[in-house]
Amino acid sequence: MILPLIRFLGHGLGTFIFHFAPIRKKIILQQITKAYPEKTQHEVHTLARKNYQHYALLFWEVLFFRRKKDFEKYVEVSGYEHVENALRKGQGVLLVGSHMGNFEITLRAAFLKKLELYFVVKTIRVKVLKWIVDFFRKNKYLKLIQSEHTYTKILELLKKNQAIGFVIDQHKEKRGIYVSFFNRLAATNSSIVSLAMASGASIVLGQTYRTPKGSFRISFAPFPLTRTQNQDFDLFYNTQEITCKIEEWIRIHPEQWLWGHRRWKGTYEGNQKIKPTLPYSRAAYAEYLSKSLQTDLFPGDGSHPPKSLTFSF
């Protein structure tokens, strides 16, 4: 009974807000139009309405999903062996996700695998809102880390073979780098790649989405870190590849992403060492690397080059 009720309440509330209390509607329409310039105005509005329904569903799900048996029944986890394999190496694991599906349900679901998870979050300035969010996130397996000044702390946790969670699909102008996202330059958090390079920790990507029936699927996949003799290139290239993967997830379930966030704000000054190329393609960076290093670009595991990445020396 819980899923049909949530769907009914979510679709009803989301549709009502879209038509009669359109909070951030202008921003959502602008963001969808930027990402999908080929869509008609009607298609953009239809996707925006579904996005409002998604937010309303997220709200009701957070309220109703409180019992362990609901998580065990309605949350399916696949690929978790990649997290376990990473932890067996003893250098920690960086779990990278996005604001897809119900990310709050994903955080709570850590207890299903009894995974002690440290998750990096932005500081909520409004005390009442912070209390509400902290209350619903309360979980003995979940420990929250405020995003300010945490780099050294995270390195220490990785040395202790801990799992650290991030989302990197939001604007990150300070200490971020510009990469291609939906064929537009987007300032992106590069600290995950920097931490992996500095610590030797593994990166595992985590995707979550809501099924048509209202249940949830969380899947994990390893991300082979590319390492060359050029650290600037590695930082850029790996951040770009992770961003491309997130874009791929969003294109499959576009109604379930956080379009209310202004992902493309800020101005690219062109002063970063590796220049982003639009549209992005792996082959576009082979020439740069070949000229600067006269070396091949291989994944960190020493296997073959990534697919579609070619070189001519």
What is the approximate shape? Answer: globular
Low-pLDDT parts are 295-313
Rounded radius of gyration (Å): 20 Å
Biggest sheet statistics: 7 strands, mixed
Number of alpha- plus pi-helical segments: 11
Strand arrangement within the widest β-sheet reads 1-9-8-2-5-3-4
Which structural category fits the helices and strands?
alpha/beta
Tell me the series of helices and strands, N- to C-terminal: HHHHEHEHEHEHEEEHEEEHHE
Tell me the span between the first and last alpha carbons.
62 Å
Q: What is the mean pLDDT?
A: 86
Helix content, binned percent: 40-55%
What fraction of residues sit in β-strands? 15-25%
Number of domains: 2
DSSP, total strands: 11
How would you concisely characterize the structure shown here?
This protein has helices spanning 2-20, 25-35, 41-64, 68-74, 81-88, 103-108, 127-137, 151-159, 191-199, 231-252, 283-293, and strands at 75-78, 93-97, 117-121, 142-146, 163-167, 176-181, 184-189, 202-210, 216-223, 226-227, 298-299.
